Amino acid sequence: MKRFFVTALLVACCLAAVPASAQRMTPEQNARRSSKASKKQAKMLKKANKKQAKAAKKYAKKQAKENAKANRQLRKRRSGR
User: Fold this and answer.
1) How far apart are CA 50 and CA 43, in angstroms?
2) What distance in Å separates the CA atoms of residue 35 and residue 28, rounded to the nearest whole number?
3) What is the per-residue DSSP string for the chain?
């Protein structure tokens, strides 16, 4: 009796471990999943591009400031002579 119970329990555990998503996916489900994935990818790409543009703008602003400072110092040195 115990062997039967253990065997039945083992079989039940094995059947429960099989995922429900292992079934074949319909074309509609596949299209929906694909669409969602592409939207997510586009959103991430847009966010990364935005972040990169912001960093480039910040770098350009910093370079312009440093260039202006260097020019002021150069004019000051030349006029002091």
Assistant:
1) 11
2) 10
3) -HHHHHHHHHHHHHHHHS-GGGSPPPHHHHHHHHHHHHHHHHHHHHHHHHHHHHHHHHHHHHHHHHHHHHHHHHHHHHHH-
Q: How far apart are the first and last CA of the chain?
A: 109
Q: Tens digits of per-residue pLDDT, 7-61?
A: 777 777 766 665 655 678 899 999 999 999 999 999 999 999 999 999 999 999 9
Its pTM stands at 0.54
Q: Which residues contact 46 (CB under 8 A, 6 or more apart)?
A: none
Q: What is the C-alpha to C-alpha distance for residues 66 and 78, in angstroms, rounded to an integer?
A: 18
24 token code pair: 């074949």
